[in-house]
What does this fold into?
Amino acid sequence: MSQLTPRKRISREIRLLIALVIGLGTLLTMSTIAEAAGLANARATGMAGAYTSLAKGYYCPSFNPANLGLTAYQVRGIQLFGVGASVKNNSLTLDDYNHYTGARLSEYEKQELLSKVPAEGLKVSADGEATALAFGMGSFAVSLSAMGAAEINLGRTAVELLLNGNAIADTVNLEGIYGEGYGLASLNLAYGCPLYKSGDRQLAVGATLRLLKGLGFEQVTEANGHAVTLTTGFEGSGSLVARSASGGSGFTLDLGTTLQISKDYTVGATLFNSLSAVRWNNETEEHYFTFSLDTLTAVNMSDDSIVVSTDTTMEVDPFTSHLPSTIKAGLARTTGSFLWAVDWEQGFKLAAGSSPNPRFSAGGQYHLFSFLPLRAGLGIGGKQGMTYAGGVGIDFSLFHLDLGVANYNAIAGSTGKGLNVAISSGFQF
It folds into this structure.
């Protein structure tokens, strides 16, 4: 029987399991449309997302519906469009990608690349949002949008395996792999109700009801596996289970409150997805992939009794998913040529579009000229990590056009670990 040499590449079955998860994440990334409400707002993007207490009119459903209950925030208008996209990872910059892709890596370069991957593994996500025909009408706002989120995590051990192969006596554990994604179209109905008013001080509450049409859903519900390298060959087993659907319907409910402390300052908070349910009932399927190895070597790899694998897809009953809840609070200066805002965001679990790590962001807007607002922002924590943002707009009394860009983990684009770009336009009257 052929003996294995140190650093022999791992079997095709184990690599296939890893590739399957990577491919699933790529599919989810391509098929989803958005992460969460607000990504398509170029003004918020240029201020690193610090917009909870600045949003007015048709922007309120995405940030705080309670703002519609404040007199100064009831801006009438029509948004023509808003488009935003974000791609990020927790390990590699664009410079890293350009340097390592397609190159034959030395042992030093492999270790250098591996050192960039944190203990939880290589995490990649892609998000976006598209909004159209949003209306602001006094205490009401209505908008149409498409949203969703996608995320995949490849465990650090699996990354090391792909780079280095395996050595004698190595045990490769494939735990830490997961993937999740969804795509949704949404009709958003928001209302703000004033509760108290005394001079410039006003208190209001509000809600946004989103009627959802499911476009696609996929989630890795189980992924595990291991392989041991012995002098006689590879031994191990692994499995992956995922469920998917191509259509469904549901709703979410956001709840907000806001206090205009004075004519210059406003503070508010929103609980996103306080209630949510999406029932997936179109082409609901579950996918199973398993493999097992028994003293596999290069010589006997073609022997079906040595390598046993299955790849099965079966129909399942309709199922219900829930969007992750997050809470966001902010304070803003709302008058003058220089506006600023600070926000705090907190998710309750790790999921596509959510993180249990708190996030803080701060941003400002300065009118260099009456029609030319300049924006900048800084964020830290959450799923995005360190974020540097900037933006510019053309803002006439009737028409506005805004562009916002945010770079993750670095000011310069090529040294960042992701990028968020948004453009939006509309009329106010």
In short: Residues 1-35, 296-303 have pLDDT under 50 and may be disordered. The domain at 12-428 is CATH 2.40.160 (Porin).
